Amino acid sequence: MQNSQPVRGLTFLSGGEAADKAQASKPHVDDTHLLDAYSQAVVNVVEAVSPAVISVTGRGEERAQGSGSGFLLTPDGYAVTNSHVVGGRRRLLAETSDGDRVDAEVIGNDPATDIALLRLASRDLPYAELGNSSGLRVGQLVIAMGSPLGLQSTVSTGVVSALGRSMRGQDGRLIENVVQHAAPINPGNSGGPLLDSRGRVVGVNTAIIAFAQGIGFAVPSNTAEWVVREFLSHGRVRRRQLGLSATLRRIPSGQMRALDLFSDQAVEVVEVLSGGVASAIGIRSGDLLIAINDRLVSSVDDIHRLLTLFPLNVPLELTLVRDEERVEVTIPAAG
User: Fold this and answer.
1) Checking DSSP bridges between strand 174-181 and strand 265-272, what pairing results, if any?
2) pLDDT grade, residue 19 (50/70/90)?
3) Which one of 71, 99, 249, 270 is most buried, by most CB atoms within 10 A?
4) Cα four-point dihedral sign 254, 257, 261, 264
5) Do the Cβ atoms of 79 and 73 come closer than 8 Å?
6) What pTM was computed for the model?
7) Which helix (H) or strand (E) covers residue 229, if one does?
8) Which residues belong to any copy of the PDZ domain (predicted)?
9) CB 67, CB 73: distance < 8 Å
10) How far is CA 241 from CA 123, 181, 245, 272, 278, in A?
């Protein structure tokens, strides 16, 4: 048997020495301390925010048949819930964590974002603070509160699973930048707050995927704040309307190259409604809409998203293809 050559640079330790060395190299982490810190963060949020969380039901319904949740936004009784919780009703009942039941009037209802604004017939109420959902990060701790399946004052925890999801509202529009999270929610959680570790509302729980576990969705707080401001300032959510009907149109590759287009799909105008914006600025049936303010349009959802993205005081430049040529038309800024 040949003598094996020593491998340079290696130092062999006895079993005891190796164990001591490995233990010494490990960072000293107190698991109990970390668990206590996590628990304390959740406890602090629950104690601070739970008085502002409400259960929402239709008037005349049995107490056990809670249709959803919500949370108070101001001390004078304004509260946020989901549009699908309101369900077209004008008056509801709200129950606080103390068991008080008060009338709630629907101030505004926006199915496009699944957000509704209520006002409770009470004053000097505890309320929750809206946070900035654009600061959320995947993996961040979040806490869901509400009344799932009629079980009031229920708390669950998880993390932000993904950002920038899209889902359709009740009117078919896409709700953008939806927060996906892993805090368990169930029917009845709808309209309840999704909170960060500092107790700020970063989302409004809105939906789950049936038969899935740990997959929930929340409308971002920034969207909810915009909708609430629209209700309070204008009584409704103002959105630009083009006044046309449209369908998708596939663009032949030769036409794409000739017009230097970036997508083989555009939105074809089928009908222009009389008296609408599209009619006023000269859009015609058969036009292909390919861009709004230099943002690519390749679906009707893109149009809805871009009409919402730009404020009403910003003019819109629409790029069309008409008779094999590019045409630019402008929607003036609203006053």
Assistant:
1) unpaired
2) very low
3) 71
4) positive
5) yes
6) 0.76
7) helix 221-234
8) 245-324
9) no
10) 38, 33, 11, 12, 9
Identify which of 263, 269, 246 has the alpha carbon closest to the alpha carbon of residue 320: 269
Scanning 81-153, the segments in alpha helix (DSSP H) are: 83-86
pLDDT(94) > 80: yes
- DSSP state for residue 150 in the 8-state scheme: G
For residue 246, the SS3 value is: strand
Residue 168 tokens, joined: 């359709």
- Known catalytic residues? 84, 114, 190
Tokens of 305: 């998203």
Residue 118, CA distances (Å) to 106, 189, 330 in order: 5, 17, 37
Check if the beta carbon of residue 69 is closer than 8 Å to that of residue 55: yes
Strands (E), 182-234: 193-195, 200-208, 216-220
pLDDT tens-digit map of 215-262: 899 999 999 999 999 999 999 998 888 999 899 888 888 888 888 888
Tokens describing residue 91: 């008056």
- Which residue's structure tokens are 């709200």? 94
Distances (CA, A) of 242 to 156, 286, 328: 43, 15, 15
Tokens linked to 67: 């249709």
Nearest to 64 by CA among 188, 195, 162, 217: 188
Nearest to 330 by CA among 36, 92, 128, 314: 314
Burial class (CB in 10 A: 0-12, 13-18, 19+), 137: exposed
Give tens-digit pLDDT for 97-141. Answer: 888 999 999 999 999 889 999 999 999 999 999 999 989 999 999
Q: Which domains does the chain have, with CATH numbers?
A: 49-120 (2.40.10.10), 130-234 (2.40.10.10), 244-331 (2.30.42.10)
